[in-house]
Design goal:
heterodimer, A: Rossmann fold, five-stranded mixed sheet, globular, B: 433 residues, Cytochrome-c3 Hydrogenase, chain B, aspartyl protease (chain A), enzyme activator activity (chain A), hydrolase (chain A)
Chain lengths: 155, 433
């Protein structure tokens, strides 16, 4: 324990759905070695694997809640009863959290950051407000995680 | 006269989203539509004008579950267009990567999406709460597939090491050792999985399927082969992958943006695990063949609910064959063969976890993609899934809607539709007036 992980969730080919991935890419190589950075395109088992044993896991994902595009929800309040379908995946983030809980494989602390998307059309580029929110979120997480104690590299 | 429309709000535990609407009049089904909305058309448009090296990476993004399938079908189609072929140790490395994907994809479906249907749980999460040991075993299996993909492909999702002609770099033998170690344990888990799912209580249902799968002379076809069709018992007919457009015609149906496929004029054929097993079971590894026999599968399985047993057998086969290839692995002398672009048409097909995945590209004089066609397995199976649902619902239309919804979801999950490959959005309605 004592290690942290940032997990960027999303898809590169659905416009603003790439927000979480982009945050992870901006952070890679800029954080203390005790902080792992992982990209995930919707594999719940890999998500659980990534945060198992971590003291802190920060998951960044695009969301669609009706707020103005570019709004950053941090921490995002996960619904108590997750919607039946949270994304175009067989199991969403909420399912992965519940599965992790059932298996006793949640991190000590789990923070979900949601970046409000505006356009999820396949092939669309990310929109300007979301790009700005991605940079803002990366800066904020870098600031927060740079205060983490340095440790050995996570594998 | 009564007219009924039954609607099911959301089909869960399938890869993607879609809708099902059933219309019934006087106790008879008058219409049944699996509605799916399809990104591949968009991808086909996006590929035009791209360089000949780009389709494997671009099409891999269509699906987060089976990116290797897209890469392999795309690579082979481009190589065929350019007159190149990947053989020997480099082909073995591609096989290894593909086995990793089969293990990963099938383990997810068997343990977290499909098994809960047979054990009375609403979801994999609910099953995990009661049967942590089983779900952990499923995740271990899946991880073995992930590690194999990572060791060869560079990362577990959307492998980055694959290129037209082979790989950017080939792993040294020692780099594959940890994946091999995990696969040995996974093979034991796979054996236990076959025995476990074989003990489920299956509805007594059989359909007269017309199957379509690739066939390879020396392998239970996954990476390449000729296309064969048949019922698994009688003679098969076959054609080369390059003749695909002469035999498989896609047509627009009004209720879906996914195209329905017709095979030699007839609609409703089936591709996927049941088809592969029926047409190729003699080519399974000896261990997988024995396990299939012990599980009571017979030579052909026409009960879609038993598809979970076939998937478990395929996981075992993939572990077994991957270990055989890893044991004999010697680093290929070069990571790829040259593939020079030239004008022409190339066809490629491979067996994605859910069935045959066909790609066709036409390259122009400058070596750029002028046309792209992608036929994913779920679009091919869509009409057959609708037929399964008609058979299921016809004698049961008087049941309460929530019960019908549950039955339909299970029948659809039998075929593990990857609706994010062939579609987007699934919500279910039955109109009864």
């Amino acid at each position: 324990m004592g290690e942290s992980v940032v997990i960027g969730l999303g898809s590169d080919l659905r416009g603003d759905d790439a927000a979480g991935l982009e945050v992870a890419r901006l952070l890679r190589g800029t954080l203390p070695s005790s902080v792992a950075v992982v990209e995930n395109s919707g594999d719940p088992a890999a998500l659980i694997e990534a945060w198992s044993g971590a003291a802190l896991a920060i998951v960044v994902d695009a969301v669609s809640s009706g707020a103005p595009p570019g709004t950053v929800h941090m921490p995002l309040q996960m619904p108590v009863h997750p919607p039946v379908r949270a994304g175009s995946h067989s199991l969403g983030l909420a399912d992965a959290v519940e599965l992790g809980r059932a298996l006793g494989r949640l991190p000590d602390e789990l923070v979900v950051a949601g970046i409000e998307g505006g356009d999820f059309t396949p092939g669309a580029p990310m929109t300007a407000p979301v790009l700005a929110a991605v940079r803002r979120t990366a800066d904020e997480l870098r600031e927060r995680l740079s205060r983490e104690r340095p440790g050995g590299p996570r594998t | 006269m009564t007219h009924k429309t039954v609607r099911i709000g959301a089909l869960t535990r399938v890869e993607g989203e879609g809708a099902l609407v059933v219309h019934a009049r006087d106790g008879r089904i008058t219409g049944l539509e699996l509605r799916i909305y399809e990104p591949p058309r968009f991808f086909e448009a996006m590929l035009r004008g791209r360089g000949h090296t780009e389709p494997p990476d671009i099409t891999a993004r269509i699906c987060g579950i089976c990116p290797v399938a897209y890469q392999m079908s795309a690579c082979q189609a481009i190589e065929a267009a350019c007159g190149a072929e990947v053989t020997g140790p480099l082909r073995d490395l591609r096989l290894l990567l593909y086995y990793g994907e089969w293990i990963e994809s099938h383990a997810l479906h068997v343990y977290l999406l499909h098994a809960p249907d047979f054990l009375g749980y609403d979801s994999g999460v609910a099953m995990a709460a009661d049967r942590r040991d089983l779900v952990e075993r499923g995740l271990e299996l899946k991880k073995a597939g992930n590690e194999l993909i990572t060791a060869i492909g560079g990362r577990p999702i959307h492998p980055v090491n694959v290129k037209v002609g082979g790989f950017y770099r080939v792993p040294a033998r020692r780099e594959l050792a940890p994946a091999a170690e995990r696969l040995r344990r996974a093979r034991d888990h796979a054996l236990a999985t076959v025995a476990w799912v074989a003990g489920f209580d299956f509805p007594d249902v059989e359909h007269d399927y017309r199957f379509l799968a690739l066939r390879h002379p020396g392998e239970y076809a996954i990476l390449s082969g000729t296309v064969v069709t048949g019922d698994g018992y009688g003679p098969v007919s076959g054609f080369e992958v390059a003749r695909w457009p002469d035999h498989v015609i896609e047509e627009q149906v009004p209720h879906s943006t996914a195209l329905h496929a017709r095979l030699d004029g007839a609609t409703g054929y089936l591709t996927g695990p049941l088809a592969r097993y029926a047409l190729n079971s003699a080519r399974l590894s000896p261990l997988a063949r024995e396990a299939a026999a012990a599980a009571g599968l017979g030579r052909v399985c026409r009960n879609p609910y038993r598809g979970i047993v076939v998937r478990a057998v395929e996981i075992l086969h993939a572990c077994d064959e991957a270990l055989r290839l890893l044991d004999g692995y010697a680093e290929p002398e070069r990571p790829c063969v040259p593939v020079e672009p030239r004008p022409g048409v190339g066809h490629g097909a491979s067996e994605a976890p859910r069935g045959t995945l066909y790609h066709r590209y036409r390259l122009d004089d400058g070596g750029l993609v002028a046309e792209a066609d992608i036929v994913p397995p779920t679009a091919q199976n869509q009409a057959r899934i609708e037929a399964d649902l008609r058979d299921l619902l016809a004698p049961r239309l008087t049941l309460p809607e929530d019960e019908l919804a549950g039955l339909c979801e299970k029948a659809i999950r039998n075929h593990d539709p990857c609706i994010s490959c062939s579609a987007h959005f699934l919500d279910f309605r039955v109109n009864r007036g």
